[in-house]
Design brief:
Elements: E1 17-19, E2 23-27, H1 33-47, H2 52-57, H3 61-76, E3 80-87, E4 93-102, E5 107-114, H4 123-137, E6 143-149, H5 155-161, E7 165-175, E8 181-190
Parallel strand pairs: 5-6
Antiparallel strand pairs: 1-2, 2-3, 3-4, 4-5, 6-8, 7-8
């Protein structure tokens, strides 16, 4: 598939910084590799099964900066949009969010994580309440999906809080650290169903 066929001029000027109540949500940019490296290193045991490409790429500082720069290229090609979640008061990186854009359907698959030391503070709730309207109104998506491990009991609650409905289960979708395959639930939110 040639991505240039799906470049949308309406997305040239989307906001790259969005403010939530607790977080500043900003497109990853040059120089963020160090901060992203530290975040992934601190949370490696928590996220490695679900973000194997990121944890592998961010095993070195140079790899982290290269990964960040690749996210910028993906943003410009309108394939995916990657954001750092920054604590508004302390200006430190506390999470990551990425939404890939599947064309021509205009469906986005959302992936995210929060620093394990900041879980339970409402950071992801704040982020999603800020970003869901952004995804529909600025990125012009018709639907957002989230995949969650069937062993992750917090994400389904968060997804339902924002109107996502469970659409099904994909068996053997992920490799677990044990070498076994794991199942995931798929949640979806349609633009015309979002309140």
């Amino acid at each position: 598939m040639h991505t240039e066929n799906f470049i949308d001029a309406n997305l040239y000027d989307v906001e790259t910084v969005v403010l939530g109540k607790k977080v500043l949500i900003r497109r990853l940019r040059e120089g963020d590799g160090k901060f992203f490296y530290d975040l992934v290193a601190e949370n490696n045991s928590l996220i490695s099964e679900y973000f194997p490409v990121i944890t592998s790429a961010l095993s070195t500082l140079d790899g982290a900066e290269l990964y960040v720069r690749k996210t910028i290229i993906s943003w410009l090609k309108q394939e995916s949009f990657s954001f750092g979640l920054w604590d508004k008061d302390k200006l430190c990186l506390v999470g990551y969010l990425d939404i890939s854009r599947r064309m021509p359907e205009n469906i986005g698959e959302l992936r995210f994580f929060t620093d394990k030391n900041r879980m339970g503070e409402g950071i992801m709730s704040d982020t999603l309440s800020t970003m869901i309207p952004y995804f529909f109104n600025q990125l012009l998506l018709n639907k957002i999906t989230i995949k969650a491990s069937t062993e992750n009991f917090t994400l389904p609650t968060l997804a339902r809080k924002f109107g996502f409905l469970r659409e099904g289960e994909l068996r053997g979708e992920i490799y677990k650290q044990s070498g076994d395959r794991g199942d995931v639930w798929v949640y979806g939110l349609l633009k015309n169903m979002y309140k």
